[in-house]
Automatic annotation (TrEMBL):
Residues 81-104 are annotated as: Disordered. The lineage of its organism: Bacteria, Bacillati, Actinomycetota, Actinomycetes, Micromonosporales. It comes from the Bacteria. This is Uncharacterized protein.
């Protein structure tokens, strides 16, 4: 599952994380949270991991916030009802083959450069 983003959403450019868990009892085992990834990489990796196993994957943006004030602003924005609601949806289209490790590492470099503004 992931967020349905409207075209041009700034969230698409954020780093994304994958949480993989048991679809049953949450007490089965601790979820695995991995990332950050570029959105397309996260979707493809999550799809590949859960394809042949009874797992649930949630792909969501990671917000690199730089302090308490920024975190509080994000919380306030989340608490404020938005004009449009884009609820989580199960990804219907196949995002393609999962990226190779070298592609993921290249994505990490792009994410780091974006966070640092370099």
């Amino acid at each position: 599952m992931t967020l349905h983003l409207p075209p041009g959403s700034p969230l698409a450019g954020q780093p994304w994380v994958i949480t993989i868990a048991s679809p049953g009892d949450p007490e089965d085992w601790e979820p695995v949270v991995c990332g950050p990834y570029e959105r397309d990489h996260a979707l493809a990796l999550a799809r590949a991991v859960v394809a042949d196993d009874d797992l649930t994957a949630v792909v969501e943006p990671l917000l690199p916030l730089d302090g308490v004030a920024a975190i509080n602003r994000a919380i306030e924005a989340a608490r404020t009802p938005a004009e449009e609601d884009f609820p989580p949806q199960v990804v219907q289209k196949h995002p393609g083959a999962p990226p190779e490790p070298a592609e993921v590492r290249a994505g990490w470099r792009r994410i780091a450069a974006g966070i640092l503004g370099v």
